[in-house]
Specification:
The chain is α/β, with parallel strands linked by helices. It has a domain at 62-145: Nucleotidyltransferase, domain 5 (2-Layer Sandwich). Helices cover 39% and strands 20% of the residues. It is built from five helices and seven strands. The chain has helices at 19-35, 52-61, 89-100, 118-130, 141-145; strands at residues 2-4, 13-15, 66-70, 79-82, 85-87, 107-112, 135-139. The strands form two sheets. It has a five-stranded mixed β-sheet with strand order 5-4-3-6-7. A two-stranded antiparallel sheet has the order 1-2. α3 packs across α4. The termini are far apart.
């Protein structure tokens, strides 16, 4: 606190000296600015590195699975294909389990020919649901043509 004596009418007047207070505040501000980035903000984490063999597996996993029910003119029974791979009715469930055992999303599509009875398409859907596939979508000719 300072005191100035001068030619004022009221006599002695006291004035507060704030310069040392501002100096202390600036020093404290600088100290806190330096200390703040040094405090830890979280846990250290290791990022997993990709395995070169997994890239091929990821390409396979990203493929959409389409089960085609195709009318066979030679026999009365329809044929099955999984992404252009021939499969029998008996092996459909085990093959679908094998394809989807490591996938997070269990989504597949069924595409039936116009000449196939719906009961055959429904049978394929039933086998796929029994293999653990959560969602089964239908692909129609109009949907495939983009209409």
């Amino acid at each position: 606190m300072g005191m100035s004596v001068g030619e004022s009418k009221g006599g002695a007047m006291a004035e507060m000296n704030v310069v040392p207070l501002i100096d202390i505040l600036l020093v404290l501000l600088i100290i806190f600015m330096v200390i703040t980035p040094l405090t830890p903000k979280g846990m250290d984490a290791l990022v997993p590195q990709p395995n070169p063999n997994q890239q091929n597996q990821q390409d396979i996993d990203n493929k959409t699975v389409v089960v085609q029910v195709i009318a066979d003119p030679k026999t009365d029974k329809p044929k099955l294909k999984i992404n252009n791979e021939d499969v029998t009715w008996e092996a459909l469930g085990s093959r679908m389990e094998q394809i989807f055992k490591e996938r997070a999303e269990k989504v597949a599509f069924v595409k039936g020919d116009n000449d196939v009875m719906f009961q055959d398409v429904a049978r394929a859907i039933d086998i796929m649901r029994g293999a653990g596939i959560d969602k089964v979508g239908l692909i129609t000719a109009k949907l495939e043509a983009g209409q």
